[in-house]
Amino acid sequence: MVIKELSLSGALVQGLGEAARVLRFSSRLPEQGEVQFCAQVIRQINGAVAVKFYHPDRSTLGNLWEHIRNRLNTGTECPYCGKEKGGVRTRCQACGIALDLEKSDYLDRHLKNTFIQRLQSRLDHLDPINIEKLLNLVDRELLKYHGEPREEEFVGTTAVMLEVFTMIRKVAVTDMNVLILGESGTGKELTARAIHERSDRRDKPFVALNCAAIPEGLIEAELFGYEKGSFTGAYATRKGKFELADGGTIFLDEIGELPPGLQVKLLRFLEDHIVERIGAKGGKKVDVRILAATNCDLKSMAGNGGFRNDLFFRLNAFTITLPPLRERGDDKLVLANYFLKKIALDEGSPVKGFSPEAKTAIMAHPWHGNVREMINKIRRGIVMASQELISPQDMELEPAEVAAEPSGLKKQVFKTQREVVLRTLRENNFVIARAARQLGISRPSLYSLMKKHQIENETARQ
Ligand SMILES: Nc1ncnc2c1ncn2[C@@H]1O[C@H](COP(=O)(O)OP(=O)(O)OP(=O)(O)O)[C@@H](O)[C@H]1O
Ligand SMILES: [Mg+2]
Protein backbone atom coordinates (compact mmCIF):
# COMPACT_ATOMS: atom_id res chain seq x y z
CA MET A 1 0.00 0.00 0.00
CA VAL A 2 1.43 3.38 -1.04
CA ILE A 3 0.23 6.77 0.20
CA LYS A 4 0.39 9.05 -2.82
CA GLU A 5 -1.01 12.26 -1.38
CA LEU A 6 -1.52 13.29 2.20
CA SER A 7 -3.52 16.18 3.63
CA LEU A 8 -4.90 17.08 7.07
CA SER A 9 -8.25 15.57 6.23
CA GLY A 10 -7.39 12.55 4.08
CA ALA A 11 -5.10 10.76 1.67
CA LEU A 12 -4.90 9.15 -1.76
CA VAL A 13 -3.86 5.53 -1.33
CA GLN A 14 -2.74 2.99 -3.94
CA GLY A 15 -2.87 -0.77 -3.56
CA LEU A 16 -5.81 -0.92 -1.18
CA GLY A 17 -8.14 -3.97 -1.49
CA GLU A 18 -11.47 -3.36 -3.29
CA ALA A 19 -13.52 -4.53 -0.29
CA ALA A 20 -12.14 -2.12 2.27
CA ARG A 21 -14.60 0.57 3.41
CA VAL A 22 -13.33 1.61 6.80
CA LEU A 23 -9.75 0.97 7.69
CA ARG A 24 -7.07 1.62 10.25
CA PHE A 25 -3.56 2.02 9.03
CA SER A 26 -0.27 3.41 10.21
CA SER A 27 2.37 5.28 8.31
CA ARG A 28 5.96 6.21 9.12
CA LEU A 29 6.62 9.88 8.52
CA PRO A 30 10.34 10.64 7.98
CA GLU A 31 10.80 13.15 10.84
CA GLN A 32 7.75 12.47 13.02
CA GLY A 33 7.85 8.67 13.26
CA GLU A 34 4.84 6.39 13.21
CA VAL A 35 1.33 7.86 13.05
CA GLN A 36 -1.92 5.92 13.05
CA PHE A 37 -5.10 6.82 11.20
CA CYS A 38 -8.64 5.59 11.14
CA ALA A 39 -10.13 6.33 7.72
CA GLN A 40 -13.11 5.81 5.48
CA VAL A 41 -12.92 5.15 1.73
CA ILE A 42 -14.83 7.85 -0.11
CA ARG A 43 -14.12 7.21 -3.83
CA GLN A 44 -11.94 5.43 -6.41
CA ILE A 45 -9.68 7.61 -8.53
CA ASN A 46 -7.70 6.00 -11.38
CA GLY A 47 -6.84 2.80 -9.54
CA ALA A 48 -6.22 4.58 -6.24
CA VAL A 49 -8.73 5.32 -3.46
CA ALA A 50 -9.37 8.58 -1.68
CA VAL A 51 -9.83 8.13 2.06
CA LYS A 52 -11.11 10.57 4.66
CA PHE A 53 -9.62 10.51 8.17
CA TYR A 54 -11.83 10.20 11.22
CA HIS A 55 -10.91 12.98 13.62
CA PRO A 56 -7.21 12.31 14.23
CA ASP A 57 -6.19 13.20 17.80
CA ARG A 58 -4.23 16.38 18.49
CA SER A 59 -0.78 14.82 18.49
CA THR A 60 -1.48 12.96 15.21
CA LEU A 61 -2.84 16.15 13.70
CA GLY A 62 0.22 18.09 14.95
CA ASN A 63 2.65 15.54 13.45
CA LEU A 64 0.72 15.45 10.21
CA TRP A 65 0.74 19.23 9.96
CA GLU A 66 4.48 19.44 10.62
CA HIS A 67 5.08 16.87 7.88
CA ILE A 68 2.84 18.68 5.38
CA ARG A 69 4.20 22.13 6.22
CA ASN A 70 7.78 21.03 5.63
CA ARG A 71 6.83 19.87 2.16
CA LEU A 72 4.64 22.74 0.99
CA ASN A 73 6.09 24.55 -1.98
CA THR A 74 7.04 28.11 -1.18
CA GLY A 75 6.45 29.32 -4.74
CA THR A 76 3.94 31.88 -5.90
CA GLU A 77 0.90 29.57 -5.92
CA CYS A 78 -1.47 29.23 -2.98
CA PRO A 79 -1.36 25.64 -1.64
CA TYR A 80 -5.12 25.78 -0.99
CA CYS A 81 -6.63 27.19 -4.21
CA GLY A 82 -3.68 26.80 -6.58
CA LYS A 83 -4.01 30.39 -7.84
CA GLU A 84 -1.34 33.10 -7.71
CA LYS A 85 -1.25 34.07 -4.04
CA GLY A 86 -0.36 37.74 -4.73
CA GLY A 87 2.03 40.18 -3.09
CA VAL A 88 0.94 39.84 0.55
CA ARG A 89 2.94 37.02 2.14
CA THR A 90 0.58 36.28 5.01
CA ARG A 91 -2.66 35.70 3.09
CA CYS A 92 -3.70 34.41 -0.37
CA GLN A 93 -5.18 37.28 -2.36
CA ALA A 94 -7.36 34.87 -4.35
CA CYS A 95 -9.06 32.69 -1.70
CA GLY A 96 -8.31 34.73 1.42
CA ILE A 97 -6.83 31.83 3.43
CA ALA A 98 -4.01 32.79 5.85
CA LEU A 99 -0.57 31.60 4.69
CA ASP A 100 1.69 32.51 7.61
CA LEU A 101 2.39 28.79 7.97
CA GLU A 102 5.45 29.17 10.14
CA LYS A 103 3.51 30.69 13.07
CA SER A 104 3.08 28.24 15.93
CA ASP A 105 -0.68 28.79 16.27
CA TYR A 106 -1.32 28.49 12.51
CA LEU A 107 -3.01 25.11 12.64
CA ASP A 108 -5.48 26.17 15.35
CA ARG A 109 -6.33 29.40 13.54
CA HIS A 110 -6.65 27.58 10.22
CA LEU A 111 -9.06 25.01 11.66
CA LYS A 112 -11.15 27.80 13.18
CA ASN A 113 -11.19 30.04 10.10
CA THR A 114 -12.07 27.26 7.64
CA PHE A 115 -14.68 25.70 9.93
CA ILE A 116 -17.66 27.20 8.10
CA GLN A 117 -16.36 26.13 4.65
CA ARG A 118 -15.81 22.57 5.88
CA LEU A 119 -19.24 22.49 7.44
CA GLN A 120 -20.82 23.89 4.28
CA SER A 121 -19.28 21.20 2.07
CA ARG A 122 -20.77 18.53 4.34
CA LEU A 123 -24.18 20.21 4.60
CA ASP A 124 -24.62 20.10 0.81
CA HIS A 125 -25.27 16.36 1.07
CA LEU A 126 -27.74 16.49 3.94
CA ASP A 127 -31.51 16.72 3.80
CA PRO A 128 -33.43 19.17 6.05
CA ILE A 129 -34.27 16.49 8.66
CA ASN A 130 -30.62 15.59 9.15
CA ILE A 131 -29.64 19.26 9.23
CA GLU A 132 -32.20 19.69 12.00
CA LYS A 133 -30.68 16.77 13.94
CA LEU A 134 -27.23 18.26 13.48
CA LEU A 135 -28.37 21.65 14.74
CA ASN A 136 -29.85 20.06 17.85
CA LEU A 137 -26.58 18.31 18.46
CA VAL A 138 -24.62 21.52 18.03
CA ASP A 139 -27.05 23.34 20.34
CA ARG A 140 -26.56 20.73 23.04
CA GLU A 141 -22.77 20.84 22.71
CA LEU A 142 -22.71 24.63 22.86
CA LEU A 143 -24.81 24.61 25.98
CA LYS A 144 -21.98 22.92 27.81
CA TYR A 145 -19.88 26.04 27.38
CA HIS A 146 -22.35 28.42 28.97
CA GLY A 147 -20.17 28.94 32.02
CA GLU A 148 -17.11 30.12 30.14
CA PRO A 149 -16.37 33.82 29.99
CA ARG A 150 -17.42 35.39 26.71
CA GLU A 151 -14.99 37.41 24.65
CA GLU A 152 -17.67 39.65 23.20
CA GLU A 153 -17.85 43.25 24.26
CA PHE A 154 -20.92 45.43 23.92
CA VAL A 155 -19.60 48.54 22.23
CA GLY A 156 -21.37 51.90 22.25
CA THR A 157 -20.59 55.49 23.17
CA THR A 158 -23.52 57.53 21.87
CA ALA A 159 -26.31 58.75 24.17
CA VAL A 160 -28.87 56.22 22.86
CA MET A 161 -26.53 53.30 23.47
CA LEU A 162 -25.53 54.56 26.92
CA GLU A 163 -29.24 54.66 27.71
CA VAL A 164 -29.55 51.03 26.49
CA PHE A 165 -26.64 49.97 28.75
CA THR A 166 -28.32 51.65 31.74
CA MET A 167 -31.56 49.82 31.03
CA ILE A 168 -29.72 46.49 30.75
CA ARG A 169 -28.00 47.05 34.10
CA LYS A 170 -31.21 48.07 35.82
CA VAL A 171 -33.43 45.28 34.50
CA ALA A 172 -30.79 42.53 34.77
CA VAL A 173 -31.02 42.26 38.54
CA THR A 174 -34.81 41.95 38.51
CA ASP A 175 -36.55 38.81 37.32
CA MET A 176 -38.76 40.64 34.82
CA ASN A 177 -39.45 39.31 31.34
CA VAL A 178 -37.88 41.62 28.79
CA LEU A 179 -38.89 42.26 25.19
CA ILE A 180 -35.95 43.35 23.03
CA LEU A 181 -36.85 45.21 19.86
CA GLY A 182 -34.68 46.24 16.95
CA GLU A 183 -33.94 45.65 13.30
CA SER A 184 -32.05 42.57 12.26
CA GLY A 185 -28.40 42.64 13.33
CA THR A 186 -28.72 45.45 15.90
CA GLY A 187 -27.54 43.27 18.81
CA LYS A 188 -30.74 41.79 20.27
CA GLU A 189 -29.12 38.50 21.20
CA LEU A 190 -26.08 40.32 22.58
CA THR A 191 -28.47 42.36 24.75
CA ALA A 192 -30.18 39.20 26.00
CA ARG A 193 -26.83 37.66 26.92
CA ALA A 194 -25.75 40.89 28.63
CA ILE A 195 -28.91 40.81 30.76
CA HIS A 196 -28.32 37.16 31.69
CA GLU A 197 -24.66 37.73 32.51
CA ARG A 198 -25.49 40.61 34.83
CA SER A 199 -28.26 38.72 36.62
CA ASP A 200 -28.17 36.33 39.55
CA ARG A 201 -28.78 33.56 37.04
CA ARG A 202 -25.37 34.06 35.38
CA ASP A 203 -24.00 30.71 36.61
CA LYS A 204 -26.97 28.83 35.17
CA PRO A 205 -27.66 28.16 31.47
CA PHE A 206 -28.54 30.77 28.87
CA VAL A 207 -30.57 28.90 26.25
CA ALA A 208 -31.53 30.51 22.94
CA LEU A 209 -34.23 29.38 20.55
CA ASN A 210 -34.96 31.03 17.23
CA CYS A 211 -38.70 30.59 16.66
CA ALA A 212 -38.37 31.35 12.94
CA ALA A 213 -35.61 28.83 12.29
CA ILE A 214 -37.49 25.76 13.51
CA PRO A 215 -40.33 24.15 11.55
CA GLU A 216 -43.71 24.71 13.20
CA GLY A 217 -44.18 21.03 14.04
CA LEU A 218 -40.88 20.84 15.91
CA ILE A 219 -41.09 23.94 18.11
CA GLU A 220 -43.24 22.29 20.77
CA ALA A 221 -40.81 19.37 21.08
CA GLU A 222 -37.89 21.80 21.20
CA LEU A 223 -39.45 23.92 23.94
CA PHE A 224 -41.18 21.32 26.07
CA GLY A 225 -39.28 18.10 25.23
CA TYR A 226 -40.83 14.67 24.70
CA GLU A 227 -41.09 11.18 26.15
CA LYS A 228 -39.68 8.18 24.33
CA GLY A 229 -42.24 6.76 21.87
CA SER A 230 -44.60 9.74 22.10
CA PHE A 231 -44.45 10.19 18.31
CA THR A 232 -42.75 8.54 15.35
CA GLY A 233 -39.06 9.32 15.59
CA ALA A 234 -39.08 9.93 19.38
CA TYR A 235 -36.49 7.20 19.99
CA ALA A 236 -35.45 8.53 23.38
CA THR A 237 -36.83 10.87 26.02
CA ARG A 238 -35.51 14.39 25.53
CA LYS A 239 -35.61 17.49 27.67
CA GLY A 240 -36.93 20.65 26.07
CA LYS A 241 -35.28 24.08 26.16
CA PHE A 242 -37.32 25.18 29.18
CA GLU A 243 -36.01 22.27 31.25
CA LEU A 244 -32.48 22.76 29.96
CA ALA A 245 -32.63 26.40 31.00
CA ASP A 246 -33.88 25.58 34.53
CA GLY A 247 -32.46 28.13 36.95
CA GLY A 248 -31.26 30.29 34.07
CA THR A 249 -32.61 32.30 31.16
CA ILE A 250 -34.34 31.36 27.93
CA PHE A 251 -34.07 33.68 24.96
CA LEU A 252 -36.90 33.38 22.44
CA ASP A 253 -35.66 35.06 19.28
CA GLU A 254 -38.07 36.15 16.52
CA ILE A 255 -40.99 35.65 18.87
CA GLY A 256 -43.33 37.23 16.27
CA GLU A 257 -42.97 34.00 14.25
CA LEU A 258 -44.29 31.77 17.06
CA PRO A 259 -47.31 29.89 15.65
CA PRO A 260 -50.69 30.62 17.34
CA GLY A 261 -50.93 27.17 18.97
CA LEU A 262 -47.58 27.63 20.62
CA GLN A 263 -48.50 31.15 21.73
CA VAL A 264 -51.26 29.62 23.85
CA LYS A 265 -48.84 27.07 25.33
CA LEU A 266 -46.24 29.73 26.07
CA LEU A 267 -48.86 31.87 27.79
CA ARG A 268 -49.86 28.92 29.97
CA PHE A 269 -46.22 28.28 30.81
CA LEU A 270 -45.74 31.94 31.77
CA GLU A 271 -48.62 31.56 34.19
CA ASP A 272 -47.63 28.37 36.01
CA HIS A 273 -44.01 27.70 34.89
CA ILE A 274 -44.87 24.01 34.48
CA VAL A 275 -43.46 22.07 31.55
CA GLU A 276 -45.15 18.95 30.35
CA ARG A 277 -43.09 16.92 27.88
CA ILE A 278 -45.03 15.66 24.85
CA GLY A 279 -46.43 12.25 25.83
CA ALA A 280 -45.76 12.75 29.57
CA LYS A 281 -48.34 11.97 32.27
CA GLY A 282 -47.58 14.99 34.43
CA GLY A 283 -45.66 18.26 34.47
CA LYS A 284 -42.60 19.63 36.22
CA LYS A 285 -42.06 23.10 37.63
CA VAL A 286 -39.06 24.94 36.22
CA ASP A 287 -37.57 28.29 37.10
CA VAL A 288 -36.69 30.27 33.97
CA ARG A 289 -36.58 33.89 33.09
CA ILE A 290 -37.90 34.71 29.64
CA LEU A 291 -36.29 37.21 27.32
CA ALA A 292 -37.86 37.61 23.89
CA ALA A 293 -36.84 39.52 20.79
CA THR A 294 -38.35 40.51 17.50
CA ASN A 295 -37.63 42.75 14.56
CA CYS A 296 -41.30 43.19 13.73
CA ASP A 297 -43.83 45.57 15.17
CA LEU A 298 -45.27 43.18 17.77
CA LYS A 299 -47.51 45.86 19.22
CA SER A 300 -49.31 46.39 15.88
CA MET A 301 -49.42 42.64 15.36
CA ALA A 302 -51.07 42.26 18.76
CA GLY A 303 -53.52 45.03 17.84
CA ASN A 304 -54.37 43.35 14.53
CA GLY A 305 -54.77 39.83 15.85
CA GLY A 306 -51.45 38.74 14.34
CA PHE A 307 -50.11 37.95 17.83
CA ARG A 308 -51.95 37.19 21.07
CA ASN A 309 -52.58 40.40 22.98
CA ASP A 310 -52.38 38.72 26.42
CA LEU A 311 -49.04 37.10 25.54
CA PHE A 312 -47.69 40.40 24.23
CA PHE A 313 -48.43 42.09 27.58
CA ARG A 314 -46.85 39.22 29.51
CA LEU A 315 -43.63 39.33 27.48
CA ASN A 316 -43.51 43.08 27.35
CA ALA A 317 -43.08 43.73 31.07
CA PHE A 318 -40.00 45.79 30.16
CA THR A 319 -38.92 46.84 26.65
CA ILE A 320 -35.46 47.66 25.34
CA THR A 321 -35.33 49.12 21.85
CA LEU A 322 -32.03 48.98 20.01
CA PRO A 323 -31.51 51.81 17.54
CA PRO A 324 -30.48 50.95 13.98
CA LEU A 325 -26.77 51.41 13.31
CA ARG A 326 -27.39 54.32 10.91
CA GLU A 327 -28.80 56.30 13.86
CA ARG A 328 -25.78 55.74 16.10
CA GLY A 329 -23.64 58.66 14.85
CA ASP A 330 -19.94 58.30 15.64
CA ASP A 331 -20.49 54.80 17.02
CA LYS A 332 -20.33 53.61 13.41
CA LEU A 333 -16.61 54.39 13.40
CA VAL A 334 -16.09 53.24 16.97
CA LEU A 335 -17.63 49.87 16.13
CA ALA A 336 -15.79 49.60 12.80
CA ASN A 337 -12.45 50.15 14.54
CA TYR A 338 -13.36 47.67 17.27
CA PHE A 339 -14.22 44.92 14.77
CA LEU A 340 -11.20 45.68 12.62
CA LYS A 341 -8.85 45.20 15.57
CA LYS A 342 -10.67 42.11 16.80
CA ILE A 343 -10.86 40.32 13.43
CA ALA A 344 -7.37 41.34 12.30
CA LEU A 345 -5.92 40.04 15.57
CA ASP A 346 -7.88 36.77 15.36
CA GLU A 347 -6.67 36.16 11.84
CA GLY A 348 -3.14 37.42 12.25
CA SER A 349 -3.71 40.05 9.54
CA PRO A 350 -1.26 42.95 9.03
CA VAL A 351 -4.14 45.37 8.21
CA LYS A 352 -3.94 48.41 10.51
CA GLY A 353 -6.92 50.67 9.83
CA PHE A 354 -9.25 52.41 7.39
CA SER A 355 -8.29 54.90 4.68
CA PRO A 356 -9.89 58.38 5.05
CA GLU A 357 -12.27 57.50 2.14
CA ALA A 358 -13.26 54.29 3.91
CA LYS A 359 -14.10 56.22 7.10
CA THR A 360 -16.31 58.62 5.11
CA ALA A 361 -18.01 55.68 3.38
CA ILE A 362 -18.63 53.95 6.74
CA MET A 363 -20.31 57.09 8.09
CA ALA A 364 -22.47 57.49 4.94
CA HIS A 365 -23.51 53.88 4.32
CA PRO A 366 -27.15 53.14 5.32
CA TRP A 367 -26.27 49.81 7.08
CA HIS A 368 -29.62 48.13 6.53
CA GLY A 369 -28.09 44.90 7.90
CA ASN A 370 -26.79 46.85 10.92
CA VAL A 371 -23.87 45.55 13.01
CA ARG A 372 -23.94 42.11 11.38
CA GLU A 373 -23.53 43.72 7.94
CA MET A 374 -20.67 45.83 9.30
CA ILE A 375 -18.85 42.75 10.63
CA ASN A 376 -19.17 41.03 7.23
CA LYS A 377 -17.96 44.09 5.31
CA ILE A 378 -14.95 44.49 7.58
CA ARG A 379 -14.11 40.80 7.36
CA ARG A 380 -14.17 41.13 3.59
CA GLY A 381 -12.11 44.35 3.77
CA ILE A 382 -9.41 42.60 5.80
CA VAL A 383 -9.19 39.76 3.26
CA MET A 384 -9.15 42.04 0.24
CA ALA A 385 -6.89 44.87 1.48
CA SER A 386 -3.65 44.99 -0.45
CA GLN A 387 -2.16 47.62 1.87
CA GLU A 388 -2.23 48.37 5.57
CA LEU A 389 -5.33 50.55 5.19
CA ILE A 390 -8.69 49.22 4.02
CA SER A 391 -10.31 51.13 1.13
CA PRO A 392 -14.10 51.48 0.52
CA GLN A 393 -13.76 49.11 -2.47
CA ASP A 394 -12.17 46.42 -0.26
CA MET A 395 -15.37 46.43 1.79
CA GLU A 396 -17.62 46.78 -1.26
CA LEU A 397 -18.92 50.07 0.11
CA GLU A 398 -20.25 52.59 -2.34
CA PRO A 399 -18.41 55.90 -2.60
CA ALA A 400 -19.81 58.20 0.09
CA GLU A 401 -21.61 60.71 -2.20
CA VAL A 402 -23.66 57.97 -3.87
CA ALA A 403 -24.57 56.27 -0.60
CA ALA A 404 -25.59 59.54 1.03
CA GLU A 405 -27.81 60.62 -1.84
CA PRO A 406 -30.17 57.82 -2.96
CA SER A 407 -30.17 57.51 -6.73
CA GLY A 408 -33.26 58.08 -8.86
CA LEU A 409 -33.52 54.31 -9.33
CA LYS A 410 -33.52 53.66 -5.58
CA LYS A 411 -36.25 56.25 -5.07
CA GLN A 412 -38.32 54.68 -7.86
CA VAL A 413 -37.93 51.18 -6.34
CA PHE A 414 -38.98 52.53 -2.93
CA LYS A 415 -42.05 54.23 -4.42
CA THR A 416 -43.09 51.15 -6.41
CA GLN A 417 -42.66 48.89 -3.36
CA ARG A 418 -44.95 51.17 -1.32
CA GLU A 419 -47.58 51.18 -4.06
CA VAL A 420 -47.59 47.37 -4.40
CA VAL A 421 -47.81 46.82 -0.63
CA LEU A 422 -50.61 49.35 -0.18
CA ARG A 423 -52.59 48.04 -3.16
CA THR A 424 -52.35 44.44 -1.95
CA LEU A 425 -53.39 45.42 1.57
CA ARG A 426 -56.44 47.30 0.24
CA GLU A 427 -57.37 44.39 -2.04
CA ASN A 428 -57.34 42.15 1.02
CA ASN A 429 -59.18 44.59 3.25
CA PHE A 430 -56.05 44.85 5.44
CA VAL A 431 -56.25 41.18 6.48
CA ILE A 432 -52.51 40.82 7.03
CA ALA A 433 -52.22 37.05 6.66
CA ARG A 434 -54.03 37.10 3.30
CA ALA A 435 -52.08 40.06 1.95
CA ALA A 436 -48.78 38.49 3.04
CA ARG A 437 -49.73 35.25 1.30
CA GLN A 438 -50.58 37.12 -1.90
CA LEU A 439 -47.25 38.95 -1.77
CA GLY A 440 -45.41 35.70 -1.04
CA ILE A 441 -43.80 37.03 2.16
CA SER A 442 -44.18 36.27 5.88
CA ARG A 443 -46.52 38.26 8.11
CA PRO A 444 -43.68 39.85 10.11
CA SER A 445 -42.04 40.92 6.84
CA LEU A 446 -45.27 42.59 5.79
CA TYR A 447 -45.51 44.36 9.17
CA SER A 448 -42.00 45.70 8.75
CA LEU A 449 -42.76 46.87 5.20
CA MET A 450 -45.85 48.67 6.55
CA LYS A 451 -43.66 50.29 9.17
CA LYS A 452 -40.97 51.23 6.65
CA HIS A 453 -43.52 52.89 4.36
CA GLN A 454 -45.60 54.30 7.24
CA ILE A 455 -48.73 52.50 6.07
CA GLU A 456 -51.48 52.34 8.65
CA ASN A 457 -54.31 49.84 8.83
CA GLU A 458 -57.06 51.87 7.17
CA THR A 459 -59.85 49.62 8.45
CA ALA A 460 -58.71 50.21 12.06
CA ARG A 461 -59.29 53.97 11.69
CA GLN A 462 -62.84 53.68 10.39
N1 LIG B 1 -22.86 47.11 20.14
C1 LIG B 1 -22.21 46.02 19.76
N2 LIG B 1 -20.93 45.81 20.13
C2 LIG B 1 -20.25 44.72 19.72
N3 LIG B 1 -20.78 43.76 18.94
C3 LIG B 1 -22.05 43.90 18.55
C4 LIG B 1 -22.83 45.03 18.93
N4 LIG B 1 -24.07 44.88 18.42
C5 LIG B 1 -24.07 43.72 17.73
N5 LIG B 1 -22.86 43.13 17.80
C6 LIG B 1 -22.47 41.87 17.14
O1 LIG B 1 -23.19 41.84 15.90
C7 LIG B 1 -23.65 40.53 15.61
C8 LIG B 1 -25.16 40.56 15.48
O2 LIG B 1 -25.72 40.79 16.77
P1 LIG B 1 -26.97 39.94 17.31
O3 LIG B 1 -26.92 38.54 16.81
O4 LIG B 1 -27.06 40.16 18.77
O5 LIG B 1 -28.11 40.73 16.53
P2 LIG B 1 -29.66 40.43 16.42
O6 LIG B 1 -30.35 41.72 16.59
O7 LIG B 1 -30.01 39.30 17.33
O8 LIG B 1 -29.75 39.99 14.90
P3 LIG B 1 -30.89 39.11 14.18
O9 LIG B 1 -32.15 39.90 14.22
O10 LIG B 1 -30.33 39.00 12.80
O11 LIG B 1 -30.97 37.82 14.91
C9 LIG B 1 -23.16 39.64 16.73
O12 LIG B 1 -21.93 39.06 16.32
C10 LIG B 1 -22.92 40.62 17.88
O13 LIG B 1 -21.93 40.15 18.76
MG1 LIG C 1 -30.83 37.33 16.80
TrEMBL record:
Pfam families: AAA_lid_14, HTH_8, Sigma54_activat. Gene3D superfamilies: 1.10.8.60, Homeodomain-like (1.10.10.60), P-loop containing nucleotide triphosphate hydrolases (3.40.50.300). Coiled coil: none annotated. It comes from Desulfuromonas versatilis. Keywords: ATP-binding, Nucleotide-binding, Transcription, Transcription regulation. This is Sigma-54 factor interaction domain-containing protein. The keyword Protease does not apply. The keyword Nucleotide-binding applies. CDD domains: AAA. Residues 154-383 form the Sigma-54 factor interaction domain.
